Amino acid sequence: MAINDIAVSTLGHYAGLLAVELDSQEADPAGIPPPPLSVAAAAALAGHLAKDLNLILDGIEQLGLILPGALYDQTEILQPGFPLIEALADLYRRSLQGGFTPSVIALGSDSGYLPVAALDPQRRPGSGPLLLLPFCLVGPREALGRVARVMEDGLLQNGEASLATREAVQQAFGVTALNLSFATLGDLCALLRVQLEGNGLLPLWDLLEHAWFQRPGVRAVTLEGGNRFLVAGDHAHTLFYTFDDWAQFGPGRTLPAAELGAGYQRWARLQRQYAMALEAYGLHVRWVLANPQLEETLATAGEAAKAALREIPCLSGDYLVEAIFQNDRETPERQITITHHADAELGTLAYTVMSTDADGQLLRLEHHYPLQPQGLNVIIDRLVQRCAEQGAERQVLHPGRLLYAESGRSLRAATAADLPKAVERLH
Questions:
Q1: What is the reported pLDDT for 1?
Q2: Could you tell me if 33 and 169 lie in one domain?
Q3: Is the domain of 55 the same as that of 136?
Q4: Which of 311, 343, 359 marks a domain boundary?
Q5: Handedness of CA 357, 363, 367, 373 (dihedral sign)
Q6: Same domain, 305 and 324
Q7: Residues 279 and 368 in one domain
Q8: What percent of the residues of the chain are helix, what percent strand, and what percent coil, each to the nearest 5?
């Protein structure tokens, strides 16, 4: 059978990457990746890559090659189901007229955007020092299988880019490359696994790998600090604990009272770290407010745990208000005292808001927790507005740490004795 008689529906595809490691001495750590190449520049670069791959992989003449003239952060490549790779393969198939004919397709743009929106690089600040140029080989499954085995067996070890390709990449994108080599998606995943394991984050890898490769069923992890994450499809479910809940019935319930502050900070640090990473790698993180009954249900992971989490409305908005006490009298608030619970590394953990009337009687006691980074400003703006509407005097106390009552295992408002510095105004 001639190559051009092969039906498009029978074609397979296999992805690879050109890994561009930037010179940290030359690159701006807060900078953004370069814009996509023009059509002409992308075509010229594709020619260099095709020559390299043909040499390294012992011939790819029977396969088609498609690549974008753009550089991506690894979080854009490693997404559930690898949609960027699938978009490349689909675009190649749709370009065929009738049967399959091997060709090189380079995607570029003279307007700053690629012809397919799904392929546009996000160009987020601080994406370096490793940037990736993905490519996709397309062709008959037998020929593709041979090349795929060669790629998996030694592309990372033997796939150094040629001097001509190095110079073309650096000139086209305007970057200084410390290293330039070819790799597979599996290589990229393995390198990230080693990195996460070295930082004590191997459970995070388990969650990501389950989502990326679209494993069936549920993958759940419980960290040493009691953080719970459950992944199914491209969704991650997790529990949010206020300090009081965490200390009274949550993961901190078995800790001595003197260790609760440090324990909650460890929990919050891992919670933020995992949630941010899961979001960055393409999962939709669904936060659910913890309760004692849910604690018991989640003791055994699986479909039952997923169903229990999905029955509870997820936390929406930028912040959460935990109401501890509210006086039923409709008396105006005249003094609002705000305690800023913070950690040097984590920043704001919560605000305790205590309001009193003109006689000094307690009207409301609340804890405000930011759920998103922007939640901090929302909380501040709303409290400032509340003081103005009530005609209340505002006082903000900065103890510089998380304050709690050991006897009640609950957050508490600061007193003058707790302050390392003078009282400040909220602004």
A1: 43
A2: yes
A3: yes
A4: 311
A5: negative
A6: no
A7: no
A8: 40, 25, 35
Instruction: Check whether residue 25 and residue 167 sit in a common domain.
Output: yes
Retrieve residue 305's tokens. 């745990």
Per-residue buried b or exposed e for 118-133, using 16+ beta carbons within 10 Å of the residue's own CB: ebbbebeeebbbbbbb
Contacts of 92 (CB under 8 A, 6+ apart): 13, 64, 66, 105, 136, 138
**What is d(CA 159, CA 217) in angstroms, rounded to the nearest whole number?**
36
Please give the distance of CA 62 from its chain centroid, rounded to a whole number.
38
DSSP string spanning 263-295? HHHHHHHHHHHHHHHHHHTT-EEEEEE--HHHH
**Strands of the sheet with 219-222, listed across from one edge:** 219-222, 228-232, 235-240, 284-289
Is-above-0.70 flag for pTM?
A: yes
Phi, psi at residue 371, to the nearest 5°? -100, -25
* 170 and 32 in a common domain: yes
Give the tokens for residue 243. 């300090």
Q: Is 170 helix (H, G, I), strand (E, B) or coil?
A: helix
User: Residue 356: helix, strand or coil by DSSP?
Assistant: strand
In a domain, 204, yes or no: no
Residue 299: both structure tokens together: 């003791």
Domain of residue 228, residue span: 210-311
- Give which of 399, 379, 377 is closest to 387, Cα–Cα: 379
CB atoms within 10 A of CB 167: 14
**Residue 230 predicted with pLDDT over 50:** yes
Give Cβ neighbours of residue 267 (< 8 Å, ≥ 6 apart): 225, 226, 227, 241, 246, 251, 252
Both tokens of 221, joined, read: 């992890």
How does pLDDT run across 100-118, given as a tens digit for each residue?
889 999 999 877 788 888 9
Q: Are residues 251 and 364 in the same domain?
A: no
Q: How many CB atoms lie within 10 A of CB 29?
A: 11
What are the tens digits of pLDDT across the range 117-163? 899 999 998 887 899 999 999 999 999 999 999 999 988 888 899 99
Q: How many domains does the chain have?
A: 3
> Is 302 a member of any domain?
yes
**426 domain-assigned:** no
Point out the domain boundary residue: 311, 340, 369.
311
pLDDT in tens, 343-369: 999 999 999 999 999 999 999 999 999
Query: Which are the contacts of 82, defined by CB distance < 8 A and separation ≥ 6?
Result: 15, 185, 212
Q: Is residue 163 situated within a structural domain?
A: yes
Q: Are residues 294 and 165 in the same domain?
A: no
Q: How far apart are CA 179 and CA 185, in angstroms?
A: 18
Instruction: State the virtual CA torsion across 409, 415, 416, 421 in degrees, nearest 10.
Output: 60
Instruction: Tell me which DSSP letter residue 401 carries.
Output: S
User: Which amino acid, residue 382?
Assistant: R
